[in-house]
Amino acid sequence: MLKFVIVGIGGALGAICRYGISLIPVKYSFPVLTLVINFLGSTLIGFIIGLSLAANLSANTLLFWKTGVCGGFTTFSAFSAEAWQLFQNGKIWQGGLYVVLSVGLCLAGVAMGQSLGRIMVRQ
């Protein structure tokens, strides 16, 4: 049960940070703030992974930061870390396939979900 609380508190903090950044007034039609959030989340999870390799961080600390804070801030950070790990382990094809499938399937998922939502509203 403690692990759920740890992830929940971290997730809440990550979500609050994401929302705070989304309030920054931007005059671009390009989703620059989402790009910034994804970059920051990916940088943070990379930093945490680096720390965990250099220092003995507890499992609860990793849960709080990686799953909680980074997950609440952006799940793109987890995707990026997993893809990078595949590339670092020499699994270039698997890493490339993961990137292509993740982006392609998630775009398809958005399109399908949007269509389903429209159909549900019409009924």
Distance between the amino and carboxyl termini: 41 Å
The largest pleated sheet is described as: none
Rg over CA atoms: 17 Å
The backbone outline, from C-alpha atoms, is globular
In terms of DSSP E residues, the strand content is under 5%
Helix content: over 70%
Number of helices: 5
What's the total number of strands?
Answer: 0
The low-confidence parts are none
Instruction: Please write the string of helix (H) and strand (E) elements.
Output: HHHHH
Helix/strand/pairing category: mainly alpha
- Mean pLDDT over all positions: 92
Report on the structure:
By secondary structure, this protein is an all-alpha fold. It has a domain at 2-74. The protein has helices at residues 2-22, 32-54, 59-73, 76-88, 92-122. Helix 2 (32-54) runs antiparallel to helix 3 (59-73), helix 2 packs across helix 4 and helix 4 packs antiparallel against helix 5 (92-122).
Question: What labels would you give this structure?
Answer:
single chain, about 120 residues, mainly alpha, 5 helices
Short characterization:
With about 120 residues, the protein is an all-alpha fold.
Secondary-structure topology with pairs:
Layout: H1 2-22, H2 32-54, H3 59-73, H4 76-88, H5 92-122
Helix pairs in contact: 1-3, 2-3, 2-4, 4-5
